[in-house]
TrEMBL record:
Compartment(s) of residence: Nucleus
Similarity field: Belongs to the GINS4/SLD5 family.
GO cellular component: GINS complex
Keyword Iron: no
Any one GO biological process: DNA-templated DNA replication
Native species: Volvox reticuliferus
Cross-referenced SUPFAM superfamilies: GINS helical bundle-like (SSF158573), PriA/YqbF domain (SSF160059)
Gene3D superfamilies: 1.20.58.1030
Protein name (database record): DNA replication complex GINS protein SLD5
Transmembrane intervals: none
Domain GINS subunit stretches: 90-141
Pfam families (UniProt xref): Sld5 (PF05916), SLD5_C (PF16922)
The entry's keywords: DNA replication, Nucleus
Source domain of life: Eukaryota
Amino acid sequence: MADVLRSLDFTQGVPADLVELDDFELLTNAVRNERNTQDILEYKHDLVERVHQRLEDQTARVESWKEASRTNRFPEEEVDMSVPILCCTLNINRFRFLLKAYWRARLQKVERFATLILDNQELQRNCSPKELNHCLQYFVAVGKCLKEVVLARLPDEFQTLVQESQLTETRDMIPMPRLDRCVFVKLLKDAGHVAVDSEGQQLVDMKAGDIYIIQYHHIQRLIQQDIAVLI
């Protein structure tokens, strides 16, 4: 797409995200990681804000091009803006799709593990303010529904959402992510020697471009640090 605009000499004034694919790749990797693990990963504040701002700028630019085309206000004669408008529109649409996919994937996990998130401050720090607000509202709404429909009809000791019975001390009904499931992972950078067993005795020298199938908790740190991506 950038090649098309460059050949038409329309790259000047075009946002960097149309010429450089870094943000697109970062957002694609973020979506893959969110979809392929149950872990509550850190919210990509900077990336999302940067992409959102560029989408607004690029949308405004496309609208200005369309308006200029309708009123023939281009300084050059007989300039056909249909191709750059199409390229920019396609670029906007693909970024919007990825951004919505990222939010949807995270919201699904926020709803699934709402009780765990509200009970864990570290996981709360991994969520955005809007996600935390949604998490709380979801927990309250679902909890109220379950209490009115089901729990109110049970004996008092069973009227809890986080324990099988109030007679037990542990919160044994809080859903937990499965971090021991096997995943496919691709290294984006050299990771050095990584332990691939529970005892930490078996080490593998993981290099950029390598692909492994491995239990998630062994490479959880690599995913959190953007050293690897789930595929």
